[in-house]
Every structure is written in structure tokens, then in C-alpha cells.
Known about the structure:
This protein is an alpha/beta fold. Helices cover 41% and strands 18% of the residues. Strands 3-2-1-4-5-6-9 form a seven-stranded parallel β-sheet, sandwiched between helices. It has a two-stranded parallel ribbon with strand order 7-11. Strands 8-10 form a two-stranded antiparallel ribbon. The chain is globular, with a radius of gyration of 19 Å. The two termini are 34 Å apart.
Amino acid sequence: MRILIAGAGGVLGKHLVNAFLARGHHVLAAAFSEREFAGMAHERLTTRACDVKNPEQIRGLCDGMDMVISCVGITRLHKRISHMHVDYEGNVNLLREAEKSGVKKFGFISPAGVDEGRDKAPLLKAKYLFEGELKKSRIPWTIFRSGGFYSDLAEMGKMAAKGPMYLVGPGTAESTPVDVKELADIMADDLLAGKTGMISVGGPEDLSWNDICERCFAQLGRKAAIVHVPIWLCSLILDLMKPFSEKYYSMGRLILFMSVANLPTEKRGRITFAEYLQRRAQPS
């Protein structure tokens, strides 16, 4: 098969590229800039730098493709570029190209909590609106709703090496985070097996935010030191911040929602967060 992976420069996108190449398929990797393809090379891999926000730049991108998978989304917010510009409008542009090119399947990834949080965080609203467009498309579709990525949680866990870790609220809300490589393999297998509709994906265990912090401290051999910041205080700060920084307001609203919502997903991964931290700590 010929498969387009948009957003291939991100952590999930790169693992998806490797997953489909490992299964013998031809991959066209699309990302915003050429530097995102550093280290990516394979005889069945083609790359293309383009901006999905610009319909002209992606004209014909999907021609000859059997399947399109989008991991497109903002990684760094800018003053003049919002989640609606990229996570919604950019993905709509890609979907329209896929429809014109007669693509047989469209895959998309969203975080767990899109339905519950669409009115609480700009990212989730943009994802929710695009999912609505995809569901109306004539192309068969698959939407994956995943738990948070271990790699992101491990970055947060770097605080544990320097002092206490900070959480919004009591830290009791649970989710099902997942190793991103395992997620990519699950997505590839499900898409190639022809699965459609909404698919829930997570790692092997539900974890609270307190659990996540405790595992980060345990990996370092330190006693857990967790500071719980009141929800009302975080909400007040965000309201005061909104007129001055849409970027940090959007990021804060997402963190606030994810910190207090219970968002378990189906347990399909095998690697636990503790195992991931241990492997990450081992010298390569």
C-alpha cells in the first residue's frame, strides 16, 4: 500500500512511519519543514515539506495514496496561529485533498477527553470539530482516542530530579497513558486490518496523577514530594492571563482539564510507565 502520514515530524508521526515501513508498505511522510526529516531514510520512504494551513501547498499531496493518517497538530503555539488554524482547518484541508484523490481510508489521532473537554480547552475543541468533519466524509475513517504519551509524562517528571512535582488539584483523576511506539504499532495493525470507527487506546494500567509523580520519584530513588495547587487558584490565574497571552491560556486550560477529568481508555499496551522510565534511564 501507499500511505501518507501527515505530521510525520512529531514523535507519534515518526513511529508511525517506522511501523508502516516495517510492515512492507510505501510511505510518504509530510511535515512542516525539511529539518523534521533528519535521520529518516528508507528505500520505500518519500518526504515532503508542506504547510497544511495552505491549501495550495498540499494540492495533489494525496494523489496515488491508499490511506492517509493525520497526526497534524500544533506543537508550539504562536501569537497568530491557533489550534483552530492547524488542528481543525489544516486537517480539513488535508481531508478535502484526500477526498479529491479518492483515498480509501483516513486515520486520525485525538487525545482521550475530546467529547468531555471540547468546551474547556481550545485544543480539544479543534480536534472535536475536525472529528465531526471526518465523520461526515465519504471516506471510511478511523479515529483513535489515546491516553497521554509516556514521553510527555517523563518530561514532566524531570521536576522530580530538582525538587517537588506540582499538580493541579488533588491528583486523583485517572487516565491510561501509553508508550508512543506501542501506540503506533497498534494504530498500524488496526488500520491495516480494516478497523473503522472510534477506537480507544491506552497502556496496560490506569494511573492517577499522584501515581505518575510517585513513579517518577521512585525511578530516581527519591521520596515523593508533591505539591497540590488548588483548582480555584489555577482557574483564577488563567482568567487573568487570557487577555495577555492566548498561547499560555490555551495551554493552561488543557492542563487544567486533563488534571481533573477521569479519562480511562481501553488497555491495549504492554509496557508500564515504570518500565518505560527504567528503559529511558538506561544508557544507550
